[in-house]
Amino acid sequence: MRTGLQKWSLWLGAAAFLALPLASWAQLSTDQLKAWESAPSAVSHVGNVTGHAKDAAADYRRYCVGCHGELGDGNGEVAQWLNPPTWPKPRNFQLGIFKCRSTPSGTLPTDEDLFDTIARGMDRSAMPQWSTFTKQERVDLVAWVKHFSPRWANEKPGDPIKIPPEPEVTPERIKAGRDVFARVQCWKCHGVQGMANGPSASTLTDDLGAPIAAFNFTEGSRPKCGDTDQDIYRIFMTGLDGTPMPSFADNIKPEEAWDLVFYLRTFMHQPSKEKQMAKQLNLKPVDPNAPPPSGQQ
Amino acid sequence: MRSRYKFAAVLSAVVLLCSGALLLNPKVSAAGEGKITGTVKLDGTAPHMKGIDMSKDPYCVKANATPVHLENVVVGSGGGLEHVVLYISDGLTGGALTAVPSDEPVFDQRNCMYTPHVLAMDANQKFKVTTSDQTTHNIHPNPNPMTGNIPWNQSQPPGASPVEKSWKATEWIPVQCNIHPWMHGWFAVVKGPYATTDDSGNYTINNVPPGSYTVTAWQEDLGTQTAKATVAAGAAGSANFTFKAK
Asked: What CATH number labels A45-154?
């Protein structure tokens, strides 16, 4: 039998042990929260909802800080265990460079773009879908993400690219899309069958020098920035900043861009009208050794 | 009647001012004709530059009849260092510092290499990226966005029209092609007049008004060096540099 004193000291020890991390957490977060609240009042607007950075501090602290870090530099505790290309490193918010944008390469994304990314998550990365947040919470988080980079104080987001209405899919359009695929040489990285096995695929690196994989259209996962036809259109017309994927806006006309979207659909695992048509056309992959159509725009 | 005289007076004043400006103008451009010349050399054995394996892209292999090497340190005749950027890091004031040249330097993608390997330019000066190749390149500069220079990434398939851009801040900006990973070059963004060395290591910085200056030489692998130069009216300044081989 233990004495009363022994029992008490045991309880005290256990309580102290439990309280220690809590105390240090509380102290750090109080300081940090103060700094955060005095930070420039970053706001965001999505639809008719206005987000305020300071309202997202607690959510960021609880759900995001593990990967994206206290300072938003992508150096959270978990970051060291994320190894590219299988697990891309968390985004460094201080740089203000984002993959999924509706705006031209080299410009800031819109608030909607960031909002969509939080909700959608990032396929083939550690970033989950944050569908548990309310719309207000997500809009607040957008403001929070923006407050890390001085770029938002000095620059405006780019003008979203204009996407013409989607035309009807026809076999002619799919064939025309194949010609675009051959002309701008998407296959150099993505491969002639969209299997991410083009000649340049193995040496791709991102802006930080980490290895990165080209998108494999055939394995059934979603494109990184969403899987609607508009999302795919946007990817190659804006580029994925920070990655090897460039913008083709200067070299693919809007109507050709739709043709290319339809052709890319034929690679995808999911059944589609495009896939059926390609089958009926008996469409062969492009020939990587064919001389490129010279001087053509 | 009166107003007619007034008009004549104003008109003659304008004519006088204009002709005065014209008369003064040659003096200004005479001041702009000053220059700093010199040579940049490498002291020691030139480092081995790796050969480039272009077998990823048969077009690139065919385009280069002789083997191609990396261009980080290129040494020409007499130990002259090519692709060194020279600019005036101290002593420039007023228009000589802030004037932005109107010509547009060209960075060409030719035979799956960058020509030139290092493109110097003034902050806010427009420059062009062109392609002479029958293969798709992506032109992907990677500056530090904290400087105000924002990274971008654009494709240039065969026959693509030039990409016209400029940089806001001074910075050594690496540029690469992700499709052809050996393609690596630099945008050297400086403030004020600049020059890059030719294949013998010679350079001339033009449009330098008379005065005393600090000239800085930058080489991507060997770092920076500074030297003093004085430009007198009608006499070019001179500054020579020697980088020690690593």
From this structure: 1.10.760
